[in-house]
Amino acid sequence: MLDVLIGLIVLVVSTLMFRYAAGTLSWTAPNLVSIVYYYSFLLSSFIGALLIALGMDDYYMIRKLFRPEEYRQIGFAVVCFVMIVFPLSMVVVSRLCGFEARQEFRAYLQKPLSPLAGATGSQVFYAFLALSLLSFAAIAYMIWKTPTIPVFALLTGTDESLAALRIEASRHFAGNVLVRNIFAITLTPLLSFIAYLFAELTHEWRWKLLFICLFVGAVFVNVYDLAKSPIFFYVMMFLLIRIYIGKTRLSAAKLALYGGVGAAVLVGMYTVIQGVQDVATFLSYNKGPIGRMILAQIAPMFLHLNLFGEALPFLYGKSLPSILTGLFDVENVRSARLVMAHVFPERIEDGTGGVLNTLFVAEAYANFGYVGIVIGTLYVGVVTQLLYIGFLRLPKNPLFLSLFVYFSINIPRTLVGGFTDFLFNPTWVLLVALFGGMALWLRVQGDLRAWFAAKRRITDEG
């Protein structure tokens, strides 16, 4: 009962702080911070951690703990700490920046979509057409260098394990991983949003045609390896885009409808890909998609706390981004992979095991112990709120709105993926540099045109 009481107090305090930092936690007006609250913390971390602390999980990963009663409580305490300190750091950042979340988010929703400053229509279109061609080339390269495309194998029929094919497609890719991850998997969906917004803004057929082509490419890169979550996150981003430009207004009935359809599709995907036969067991709280959401994301954090410093040595920075470890000639290793190899070595051997991703503080702990948890929580909370404030204060044009929606979905996903991506993420850096540089270049071009036009006018009048 004490765990339940502590959990209720933590939940109430955390919810109030998240609502202050986000401006609203309404399901009909989702935003970066509210998605972090509902997805990364409440659904993926807190509920499962409480069940584990109460011994009500009956989950296969938790059975791998040694001294389980001790580490059930330690893991729950860590989650409670993050639930309080993370939003607290966001509240402090808001106060320091003079950020009134409720008013500024409401104003952003009401603000109309605007064109890129200083750019002509043809300039913008041909610039994004060139990026789209680069994206399509990267998709072709990805198909060429992937040993077997799992979705093709599913459609044509195969005797091989689809789970093994997924791991093979991910870990045995024969090409440049950055080209695949950045220019095919990430850039294509983002460009599809930009093309859609320009089509809505200009009503030009060329933007509509470009959007259709990019949409097909985006759907493919989100389903090619049969991963179940990427296509759902893509649909969520598209829905956010429409909400932010006023094309879609959510209601309780629509949310129920979308949720029901999404759940049915998810169950269907699990049934086809994993060959589920016992549906009742599959839909229990600790198995199938439900267990995947509330327990599979947080259970590896308990394993991290249990293993590092006991069965495994602390990494002391070895899982930091490879661009940093390479400077010191240190081999890069992810803690989630080490935990998988230690706890489920048979999966590594048969090719069905990848990584055990979990709440970001697990990787911080694996590197620097409890100090890593404290500093990591403060750091990531500050970065998240600064991003939220920054995007709400940027112009609401197709480029910045698409990036805002991209981070609104990918920050929550990364929070339950690892810590080091918040230190240096080459995909995020490249996207910000690419689109920020493009916006700056188009703005400078426009200012120069205006200056030369004014100079010619003065000359003609003189």
TrEMBL record:
The chain crosses the membrane at residues 36-54, 74-93, 124-144, 177-199, 231-249, 255-273, 368-391, 398-416, 422-442. Keywords: Membrane, Transmembrane, Transmembrane helix. This is Oligosaccharide repeat unit polymerase. It comes from Geobacillus stearothermophilus (Bacillus stearothermophilus). The lineage of its organism: Bacteria, Bacillati, Bacillota, Bacilli, Bacillales.
